[in-house]
Amino acid sequence: MNWITKKLSYLSEKIKTVIKKRPTKEEIENSDWFSCCKGPILKKELEQNLWVCPSCNKHHRIGCKQRFDIIFGKNNYEILKTPIPKDDPLQWKDSKSYKDRLKDARKKTGMDCGIMVVSGKINNISVTACASDFAFIGGSVGAAEGEAILTGIQHAIDNQQAFVNFTSGGGMRMFESLIALSQMTRTTLAINELKKNNLPYLVCLTDPTAGGITASFAMLGDIHFSEPGAIVAFSGARVIQATVKEELPEGFQKSEYVQETGFIDLIVQRKDLREKIGLILSILLKKNSDINSVTDETSTSIEQPTKAAS
Ligand SMILES: [Zn+2]
Questions:
Q1: Ordered domains of the chain (ranges, CATH)
Q2: Distance 168 CA to ligand 1 centre (A)
Q3: What is the pTM of this model?
């Protein structure tokens, strides 16, 4: 039996060598290649096509700077500084500590938190915009991300600008428990302030937008855009299927399906987003000024008799 043992040990060494030779996740991320339907595609080629696959039209996930470069033009916007509250308020630790997760996410994305807020112009209309990076702990929302959204909305109100939100992420960040959940209320209240100021709030749902994000600021827009094929959901499809014990319809939770159920107004190709947002903003802002002038006229006509009476 000695030859069998020798053969097995030889084979196990061979397998180990093959496994070791597989590129690491980091090596794949740093390579010049990307993978889609037809196998490898050069990242440069994909970037020229705004990170949309030329063969299958898959809108790949992009970071905040990539998003803003497409919407405003390369580096043609000002990044706003947002407050970063104390890291790891609950000193969370499971298989890895939350502090380490934050450290890795910051290194990977070059961002302090998962949301970036900027100010720029679309079709000569000044807007404040924010975007989430899914690579930052799954785009989840904690205190810092909540603060970023609030800072953006305050900036929009102070400068009487529209607010555009490019959402993505799995929901509220469990490592911050109730502190993260409270961001649903805080952002909702801030959006109400925006609306009291008659300022447009546009949401562009990108892949994937789910959980508490869908249950709060992502669904409160005046207009909801989405990119083709984006997952827009609350719970995951597998959870729903296991609960209802029924086969789910084809394309369930994809933006095209969600549009049919009325949660999305418009599905827009990435290359057309800038133009469509500009067009909608010009219509909404004109409408708002009309509303304001009507309101002013009404309030003046109400005030005048009062003054005359006194
Ligand atoms: Zn493809």
A1: 1-60 (no CATH), 62-298 (3.90.226.10)
A2: 20
A3: 0.85
